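Chapter summary example.
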Amino acid sequence: MDQSSGQRWFEALQQILAGTHLWRPEELAPALDEAMARLGVRTRVWVIDYEQTTLLPLPQPGAPAEESLPIGGSLAGRVFAGMKSQVGDGGRHWVPMVDGTDRLGVIEFVADTGDPGFLRRCELVGGLIGHLLASTSERGDLIERVRRSRPMSPAAELLWRLLPPLTASFDRAVVSAVLQPCYEVGGDGYDYAVDDGAMHLTVLDAVGRGLEAGLTCAVALSALRASRRAGGSLTDQARAADTAIAGQFRDSRFVTAVLARLDLETGELLYLNAGHPRPLVLRGGRAELELQQGRRLPLGLEDRVVEPAREQLLPDDRLLLYTDGVTEARTPGGDRFGLPRLVELVERNAEAGLPAPETLRRLSHAVLEHQGGPPADDATLVFMQWSATAALMTVPGALEPGGNEDGA
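The structure predicted for these 408 residues follows.
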């Protein structure tokens, strides 16, 4: 890229950033297209729906009406699934759109160019627009409306606002989550945080259905976070949740949960299991063990005896946390999804070398397809891989030739 071309790209990015202070959500896609038009490039922004099955175009004045693009069976969908940019027909260049490493959709860049560095610069813009879309979406409802195929329940609306992004990657690990049914989820939740060389992971399943379960999950999640952010241990966090749930609700509500802390330097895993399905550890692409220790009563039912259990993870190990809505999912004829089927699918996807969020997307869709209709219970999966390479697989272009293999 010569100096004058680089200057024009810099000016386009400057134009985008200068307008972000006052943007409304509906201005994002037109503003990007206007800025890139100065370079002879046209753009279209596509966002992923909540079901994670379809890419949908953001409204753009003057642009032709576009049909949605399926994740399976379209080039744009393959870019979203694999986090690898692709060049299609008619000068169309497709790049992932991410907020950090959280997959938000793809951006279509249309240009007649032979510049070998064009895709790399488009990926840079895709990362910038992903950040801006995530922040701008909080200012209005348009992006949320585009992503939804039907109304969301009050419980789901509450929980989605409390949860961190579905995917986050760090220099040594990646964590990803998925929840179904996305419009009706009530009692399930998850959380994670990385500080001081340690990753904290939580998965929760509140008793009950709908808004009642959503409120219970919200109280537990808030209590766990407050204790963790005050420096509390896993035991302290569980006790804080016990107190908060018992103090807020007069009936016998409780939340099953797994609380875990992974030392990202040594691989030592501490965990508590509060009446929840046992987590799985995958090693070498196979389900190596279930974590059976560290058990206590569900959160909300005081249990002051149990201390966290310990397990030593190895580099590249994968940790899978899930709620019982996954293994208890049934066909109309009553056939359970079951743990053996879950293990088989996890192993198969591990062998395929898919990015962590794509592994979970496929797992959650397998659960939905098994049921053949609306699920009877919330189904949540949280997947962590202790691997620098796995983390880079969620960064567009990082493992491509000339990319960012060393993480720098």
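To summarize the output: Residues 404-408 have pLDDT under 50 and may be disordered.
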